[in-house]
Every structure is written in C-alpha cells, then in structure tokens.
Amino acid sequence: MNQTPCIICVAITGSVPTKDNNPAVPITVTEQIESTHAAFAAGAPIAMSATMMRRRHPTQSGSAN
Amino acid sequence: MIIQLSTGGRSGAGKTRGGMLPLRPDMASLSVGSNNFPPRVYENPPDLVDWLAGEMRSYGIKPEIEAFDLSHIHQAAAMNKDGRIPGQLYVQFVMGVKNALPVDRDVFDYYVKTVKRLTPDAEWCAAGIGRYQLTVNDWAIAAGGHTRTGLEDNVRLDKDTLAPSNAALVARTADLCAAYDRPVATWQQARQILGLSQEQVA
After folding, report:
1. Closest to A58 (Cβ–Cβ): which among B11, B147, B151?
2. What ipTM describes this predicted complex?
C-alpha cells in the first residue's frame, strides 16, 4: 500500500463548462477566488484555472478586464 | 497554495496561449504534442511548444505536462533530457477527452510504467473527463500518483446529480484517499513534492 501524500489538484473552471451545464461553475473573478478558497479548505493544494473571463468570453491574456 | 494557469488551446491560439505567463504563476500546463479534441485538432506544433517551454523557463514556472497521448510522455522526457524542460517532470495523464484517448485501464498502467522507465524521478497525476472523473481518481490514488478533480473536467457527482461546488468534488477525492490510507498532501507537502519554493505568496 502506497502511503505517500496525494496531491489533489482542482481544475476550477475552463472554457468548456458554463453555468448552463452547472450553475456552480465559477465564472467571474470573485466566483473563481471563492471557489478556489473553498476547494483549498476541502483539501486541494493546487488550483488550476484555464481561463479568465473578459466580457464573459474566455481569455488567456493575463488580464480579466 | 499553488496556482497553476492553463496554456491549453481551447480558448486561445498560438502565442496568445502564453499571454498570462508573465504573471509568474507557480505552474502552468504545457502540451508537448497534438491530438484531436471534440470540435477540432488541438494544435501543438514544435515551435509553439518550444516557445511556451522557453517562456516558462524565463519566468521560473514549473510546467505540468498534459499527456493526452503516449507520444506526449516520450516528448516530455526528451525535452527534459535536453534541458528544454529543466528539473523534475510533472506529468498529468488526461483521459476521456472525446476524440482523444479514452479511459482505458491498460493504457493507464502503461503510462505509469512508461513514466517510471523514462524519467524515474518524475511525479505523475491523472485526470478523467466527465463521468470517468472518479474512476481515474480511484486508479491514480491506488497506484500512488496524484489526481485532478474539479468542475472544469466534470460537472456532476453522478448521472443524476450536479456537483454543488468544486469543494464537493475535492471532498469526494479526499474520501478516496482515506479509503486507500493515503494522506491528502498539504500545500507545504505539495510544494516539496513538486520542487517549488516553500514561500507562501500572499
């Protein structure tokens, strides 16, 4: 039995799932921060975010404005 | 905690995919080869892969290799050997993307074997997409790897129930760790395992 620590990574959101799929999908910056914080508290030391939202469209520009 | 940003190709194209790297996240995803995604080809030509890897070196970002195919593990090991991806490799097996590699137990076992053979110091992680998320979580935890969950990959707890939050998906993954007597890594342990600095960024 392997008893080394297991890293849980949480991929909080991406460009595919939307609130139409599940209203819990975090979209806005505030929602992403709150969702990340809750996931960290539940045991995930890595949070991965695929996108930030620019005017509700996914972007990887490094700025959410 | 550890922040990882994606340079994946679903919402950007070409070098725009690396537009956030100057923010110097702890980690960033890096795909080192191409494959099909549901609507189209996921293009990762060698020159773009080299540019993204170079940006990650410049900004001191640890790549997480997204392995959608066996060739991606071989390519990552080759890039590690020649210095384009320095240090210990961290490889994520992504299984269950439509039109790409399905969730297949024999392939999973061979992925683990291949990582251990090509790059024995590497750490690996596995993610299952959609309804296979928990299946792959189970395999990875039992086999001694790390694992990914979250609403990006899957929005349901089961066929009839939407996941209420990312935290709920993390909690069920932590329950699986407990079932296999594996402690869930703290952020300090995770940073140590991944060779990241122990400084806590406010």
Report:
1. B11
2. 0.94
For chain A positions 23-62, those within 8 Å of chain B (CB to CB) are: 23-26, 35-36, 38-52, 58-62
Taking CB atoms and an 8 Å cutoff, what residues of chain A touch B2? Answer: 45-47
Superfamily of domain B4-194, CATH level 4: Aldolase class I (3.20.20.70)
Per-residue pLDDT of chain B (202 residues; tens, 9 = 90+): 999 999 987 656 789 999 999 999 999 999 999 999 988 899 999 999 999 999 999 999 999 999 999 999 999 999 999 999 999 999 999 999 999 999 999 999 999 999 999 999 999 999 999 999 999 999 999 999 999 999 999 999 999 999 999 999 999 999 999 999 999 999 999 999 999 988 755 4
* Amino acid found at A42: A
Task: Looking at B119-182, list the stretches that DSSP marks H as alpha helix, in order from N- to C-terminal side.
Answer: 133-142, 166-179
* Distant-in-sequence, close-in-space partners of A29: CB < 8 Å, separation ≥ 6: A52, A53, A64
Please identify which residue in the block is written with the tokens 């620019």.
A54
8 Å CB contact between A8 and B196: no
List alpha helices for B66-165, DSSP H: 70-81, 105-118, 133-142
CB-CB: which of B20, B163, B182 is closest to A6? B182
pTM here is: 0.92
* Domain ranges within chain A, ordered by starting residue: 9-59
